[in-house]
Amino acid sequence: MRLSAGEIWTGLVGAFAVGVAALLPLFDQGYYLALALNIVLYAALCTAWTLFSGPTHYVSLATAAFFGLGTYAVGLGLDYLPFPALVLAGGAAAAVLAGLVGAATLRISGVYFVIFTFGLAELVRQVVSYAQTKLSTRMGLYVFTDFTEKHIYWMLLALTVLVFITGWLINRSRFGFAMQIIGNDETVARHSGINTARLKIILFMISGAFIGMAGAILAPRYAYVEPPSAFNPMISFLVVIMALLGGTLRLWGPLVGVIPFTLVMDFVSVRFPNDTSIVIGITFLVIVYLLPDGVTGRLEQLLARIRQPRSHAEPAAVKEPA
Amino acid sequence: MLRKMTLMLAASAVAVVAATGFAAAQDTLKIGASAPKTGPLAGGAAVTHWPNIKLWIEEVNARGGLKVGGKNMKVELIEYDDKTSGEEAVKNIQRLATVDKVDFIVTPYSTGLNVATAPLIARYGYPHITTSAATDNVPEFVKRWPNSFWLLGTSKQLAEGVADALAKLRNSGAIGKRVALVNVADAFGLELVGAGKPALQKAGFDIVYEASYPLGTQDVAPIISAAKAATPDAFVAFSYPPDTFALTEQAQIQKLDVGAFYVGVGTAFPGYAARFKDNASGVMGVGGITPDSKAIQDYRKRHKEVTGADADSWASATTYAGLEILGQAIERAGTTDKAAVIAEIKKKPFTTVIGEVNLADNVNHNIWAVGQWQGGSFNGVASAGIAGAKAPVKKDAWK
Amino acid sequence: METIVTGILLGGTYALVALGLTLQYGVSRIMNLANGETLVAACFIAFWLFTSYQVSPLWGLLVIAPVAFVVNWAIYMLLLRPLVDRAKTQGMLEVDSILATFGLLFMFQGLMLRGFGGAYTSYAFLAERFEIFGTFYGLNRVVAFVAAVLISSALYLFLYRTRYGTAVRAVAVNPNSASLVGIDVARAAALSFALGGALTACGGALLSTYYTFNASMGVVFTMKALIIVIMGGVGDVRGAVIAALILGITETAVARLIDPGLTLAATYALFTLVLLFRPQGIFGRQQA
Fold it and tell me: What is the CATH number of the domain that holds C90?
């Protein structure tokens, strides 16, 4: 595996950032840790979401369904299996669901996919509730473990790193190349012999698996798992908004969206608790009208313009647009 | 002339403010509250939870504040919306405890949110007086979180109360023994039916129809018509506010005439009586108030005056009582030290709007299980340990 | 028998919910995720008119429909036209409109929360018995069904029997060809969007007579509407009505005969079947 200088540099910077982030619990175990935990959670979720929705431009609203499945895997299995196995089980369950949904909807146009995933969390919630009703006398599941906030924080951090590495590997591979073609023009891809439907489904499953694992890791923090909160549609909406805000053209794009958005939302929910919906609405509108490729997209446009040979720099110093 | 008057008024205003400012040295007691203002449970919290906090604080501050040690401490509220999300709730508690550094935290609203935040509240050592959580796991929770107190009872108590009320009606000859039993497919509904079905069967009733439906179902006509087809004598639904209303309306429209009609949460809301008017008479539901209690009548009057809305007839009074207990415990302990206050809560009983409450083992054992609309008041007809129940009356046919 | 009548009544409800979106998506090509919010807003306004001024929701329609028309027209011209002009492909417009209307969804929800609070609201109007073939149904539902029939018929006549209506249908089929034959596509799109909004608002006002609603409920209605629109064939009013009826009957049958806990699952199963075997919907055309 040959790595370019740029990639090595990015890797080192990334590792450093992760190292610094991992030290946070040593300084604060209260509110700021909780805030950081939220940021890392959404960093993992949004990057995993972008793995699929970035290249394909399919807006997936299924995040809550995958997340909830992961949470439920832990809730149901805590008395029978060790925690790491449950995390993997949660990821697997989510991947299976992603596979089914993908098979049903990814062969046709993107709009059907969005609509289907829009109600998917509701559907899964209903089915899980139904199963619980029939199979037990309890709806909520108690998840009592010895994990504290900092353990969950570290686990999520590790998951985020894993998502990034996976994304990076995909981008470098033929798989990633094929996805790029599909994203640019699906008809061309199909005519080039790429099995577009199958690739999309596989990518969707990978993305879903990570989201499911995040849900599983969060289960101990909730302590009480019940369908309305595990399959809360807001999770899907927030992931979409943060990823799009950051920009889905790059793997680290969503991160640029997650951090400021989480901080702004926190600020707003503290000072204007009744107006959080309006803030979300305005952010969406800002994204659509001003930042169609997210903050990173806009930044890259600016950088490209700066590098244009409009200045008197020597021609040799001109680089191609990023 | 006008200018002189204005100047005089301004001067006296300044004097008054200065005078109160120089009054006995005052500290403020910071109290934090995190509960739904948005999300699925915002409606319930708006009726049962937030108004009582507002009422209690206004009343405490109106009489000068809580007397802690030698000082008068006025209460200052710091409130957050948890958006009915466990995650947000946990974050809010973190913030209240570590950033705002509040002296005490008001219980969150609803079973789920209370359980999600309980470990954290326990870790920070605050007294956690829950007033809107009804669950069978109370004994286990008390062991886990010795700082927690549970005032609303268990689902088992509530469900057995239903069997109790229905048995009373059967013994008086008002109804037969056929019962149609439905429940909302959610934690509360499941616990209630899990305890309710065996309790009804033990009391000699036959379950002739049973079904469960998802939370948020609006079209309940099929359920009512199926129940009607089973010719029941009593209809019992462990339901939540939107379906409580929907089931009642459908039962009225399809003329499901039974001698006993019970719908779950929401029956005790003032909005229920307002909506169904005469048809609400005779309907039973969760909760109930002590019919002839002066304390309750007084409380309801004050609630209406201060908050502009009616209290509900289930958890409202309990929520207020929880705050009364907190205030009285702080005053008794004479300090804002959390551990001392927790110890104080367990020591002696408290006098509250719901009567005397004894939390020696962290649990309030005396609750109203079933109430019935009788003459415009949602009177308690079946309880665990409270005297003064009215006899349940047979339901008239729907108008 | 009773199940079928209840199902048909429910189908009428769903038709009210979905007709507006059929026009907005079919003709204006806007996937309006804020559709449900328009509906809930109309519920609140009907409620307010009824409780504060004792105005029956049926008369209230005369106020609500025009207001919704104007508001939706404004939304289209100010917020959505720039996206239409900017989009290079149909797919891009869809994604953009999804995101923009998503933003509108939250804004409306936030405004309604501020205005009406988060509590559940309902009121009783015509909650009396109406007998059909020996069983009782809610008069409010029957009235809503009749209204749905009238509205659908009026819409059908407009679209299939008038010149302008045919122009609108042409835009739904293929905007490019439509502009080639001299139809003002932009105007038709704006008109359809506004009309769609007015229809949804009428649906909301009628629904409010028998549903319990709160500010956060819009999403539920949007979801159902989307499914019906796709199932019926995008842009086809007849398809939407038939899909709505099928959905209503299926849900009622499942609730009555199988288990009320599986209604949404049944809806989705139906939706999935349509997607797998006839993705263009009942009346849709096979896409290229």
Answer: 1.10.3470
- pLDDT confidence bin for B145, thresholds 50/70/90: very high
Test the C interface: residue of A285, A286, A290, A293 with most C CBs within 10 Å? A285
Q: What is the CA radius of gyration of chain B?
A: 23
Write out chain B residues lying below 8 Å of C266, CB-based: none
Distance of alpha carbon A96 from alpha carbon A66, whole angstroms: 10
Total residues belonging to chain C: 288
> At C273, is the pLDDT very low, low, confident or very high (cuts 50, 70, 90)?
confident
DSSP three-state, residue B29? strand
Flag whether residue A140 sits within 8 Å of chain B, measured between CB atoms. Answer: yes
Residue C8 lies in a domain: yes
Q: Is A280 on the interface with C (CB under 8 A)?
A: yes
Dihedral (Cα; B193, B198, B201, B205), 10-degree rounding: -20
Q: Which of B56-65, B115-124, C5-14, C207-216 has the lowest mean pLDDT?
A: C207-216
Classify burial at A52, counting beta carbons within 10 Å of its beta carbon; exposed 0-12, middle 13-18, buried 19 or more. Answer: buried
CA distance A197 to chain B (A): 34
- B374: helix, coil or strand? strand
From the CA of C211, how many Å to the nearest CA of chain B?
A: 7
Q: How far is the alpha carbon of A124 from chain C, nearest alpha carbon, in Å?
A: 8
Backbone angles phi, psi at B363, to 5 degrees: -125, 135
Q: Is the Cβ pair B144, A30 closer than 8 Å?
A: no
Query: Considering the domain boundaries, does residue A35 fall inside one?
Result: yes
How many domains in chain C? Answer: 1
Of B185, B217, B242, the CB nearest to C120: B242
- Domain that residue A279 falls in: 5-308
Q: Residue B199 and residue B395: Cα distance in Å, rounded? A: 22
> How far apart are alpha carbons A236 and A239 in whole angstroms?
5
Q: What is the SS3 assignment for B284?
A: strand
Tell whether A16 is covered by a domain: yes
pLDDT score for C38: 92
Instruction: Look at residues B279, B187, B178, B288 and name the one whose alpha carbon lies nearest to residue B236.
Output: B178
**Are B211 and C214 in contact (CB < 8 Å)?**
no
B37 with A133: Cβ contact below 8 A: no
CB contact under 8 A, A273 and B118: no
Give pLDDT tens digits for A23-66.
Answer: 888 887 778 888 888 899 999 999 999 999 888 888 898 999 99
Residues 222-241 of A with CB under 8 A from C: 233, 237, 240
In angstroms, the CA B354 to CA B317 distance is 7
pTM: 0.81
What residues in C contact B276, CB-CB < 8 Å? 124
Is residue A243 less than 8 Å (CB to CB) from chain C? no
Whether the CB of C8 is below 8 Å from some CB of chain A: the reply is no
Instruction: Give C34-48 pLDDT, tens digit per residue.
Output: 999 999 999 999 998
What is the span of the domain harbouring residue C99? 2-277
Residue B187: which of A139, A276, A277 has the nearest Cβ? A139
What tokens does B26 get? 């005052």
B18 touches chain A (CB under 8 A): no
- Closest by CA position to C24, among listed C235, C225, C211, C201: C235
Q: How far apart are CA B280 and CA B216, in angstroms?
A: 22
CB distance B249–C138 less than 8 Å?
yes
Domains annotated on chain B, with CATH: 27-154+293-367 (3.40.50.2300), 155-291+369-384 (3.40.50.2300)
pLDDT for the residue B25: 47
As separate numbers, helices (DSSP H) first and strands (DSSP E) second, chain A gives 14, 2
Angle subtended by helix axes A83-105 and A110-135, to nearest 10? 130
Say whether residue A123 is in contact with chain C using an 8 A CB cutoff: yes
Minimum CA–CA partner of C286 in chain A: A108
